[in-house]
Input
Amino acid sequence: MADFERTVRDTIDEHGLLLPEDSVVIGVSGGADSLALLHVLRRLAPEYRVTLHVGHLEHGIRGDESLEDARCVRAIAEAWGLPVTIARRDVPAIAQERGIAIEEAARQERYRFLGELARSVGGTTVAVAHHADDQVETVLMHLLRGAGLSGLRGMRPLSRLDALRLGDDEGPPPEDA
Output
């Protein structure tokens, strides 16, 4: 965890992601990556003088397993004394309605939820965790969309919603977020 914490700290410092008095909404799926990010940001919050709010979107894709993720996220946030908001969206129905893949609908709805949550709680920044499989998936999505060489990149450490300085911007972030 020390190496991961150092990486998170270095990324925060290099990109100026957190300012004193920021309110950070952390997107927590219940997976290892987002729980590790939550753990590290909880440890770093006093040093950076920021407050945290946990957000979880139960997307209705994995049935009881999804519901268990939501319960786990709520239990951890409450045990650590952090405010938590859990929302539910019927992502399969949304995907069908929009004529897009379930994974794309889940991504869009997750970022839409996190942006809405940040606005509703006075959040200044949204933090999400990504892992190597996300990077590969992003490059493949760019390829399938016909991206040229300039589009064949993974996710940047900072994107429009990953470190959102909230304004009036609506909708999901770019595909590499």
